[in-house]
Amino acid sequence: MKAIRIGKTGGPEVMKFVEVDLGKPGPGEVRVRQTAVGLNYIDTYHRSGLYPVQLPSGIGLEAAGVVEELGEGVASLKPGDRIAYGTGPIGAYAEVRNLPASRLVKLPAAISDETAAGMMLKGMTARYLLRATYVVKPGDTILLHAAAGGVGLIMSQWARALGVTVIGTVGSDAKAAIARAHGCDHVINYSTEDTVKRVRELTGGKGVPVVYDGVGKDTMMISLDCLEPRGMFVSFGNASGPAPPLDMLLLSAKGSLFATRPTLMTYTASDADLRETAQDLVDVVASGKVKIPVNQRYALADAVEAHRDLESRKTTGATVLLP
Question: Model-level pTM greater than 0.85?
Fold first, then answer.
């Protein structure tokens, strides 16, 4: 089978589409023929070296496919089952894989393979952020940066379904329209508006109890300035570069604020947590309350082009690579 491999870190060009030998699935594993692979910003961090991986390495954490063969001891799945995953192990940019059965979720007929490949990592991220890191309540007003991005579009719909008012930030009028269509009650175009001023206006001067910030360097101070006293700054991504070091006294001066840097891997480290998180996501998507817009498709062999488009902010919603 063929897969994308990296032998060194760097730009998109370090990814190579090569022949790979794949053995039989081991104990507790299944062989999966993948039908769609999810593209995520964390993939660029692994490729660039921002998040170190042992080289040479595969790349990618999310995909959907069909079970072809069972390893010893697997009773939870059978050949022909449609499955998806979103927490690795790393190496999803591949035609066929052997994967631990305990980290896979079965797909209902209501969810297509492309939808599943575009939703697992981003959707489980949305779930832990909204239901575990800061548990949103009906009547809350939240601030969500990059509201037209893959995680943003899922979070805004899900939060709206939970009775939450969503203020989203975007970088263009076109992305503002996308964010509004996917659940944002108020949209701020940060290229033409003062985000902090507008958030204060929308909240009667109070600020918001939580800011979900997947942008990083460019937005950290803005996020802190938008919080109400004892509010929570949730920094979960680095799309503009890593957030700078945080002066703890700043949290005091700005109102006894909380700050956290969570990861999906921590929140789904146990199989039980993964099952609960994944099932919540599958249920909310199957119900129609959250729709997964797959707005870009590339051949798996064109992963270099896909990464270039993602990093230049040409993409919206979910992107899938097709083996």
Answer: yes
- DSSP classification of residue 102: G
Q: Which segments of the chain have a pLDDT < 50? A: none
Residues contacting 269, CB < 8 A, separation 6+: none
Compute the distance between CA of residue 109 and CA of residue 116 in angstroms, rounded to an integer.
Answer: 11
Tell me which residue has tokens 């082009």: 305
Q: What is the pLDDT of residues 161-202, one digit of tens each?
A: 999 999 999 999 999 999 999 999 999 999 999 999 999 999
CB 321 within 8 A of CB 141: no
For residue 78, what are the contacts with CB-CB under 8 A and spacing of at least 6? 67, 70
Nearest-5° angle of CA 194, CA 189, CA 137? Answer: 90
Q: Measured between alpha carbons, how far is 136 from 131 in angstroms, rounded to an integer?
A: 7
Could you tell me the two tokens for 216?
Answer: 């990083």
Q: Percent of the chain having pLDDT more than 70?
A: 100
How far apart, in whole angstroms, are the C-alpha atoms of residue 91 and residue 176? 34
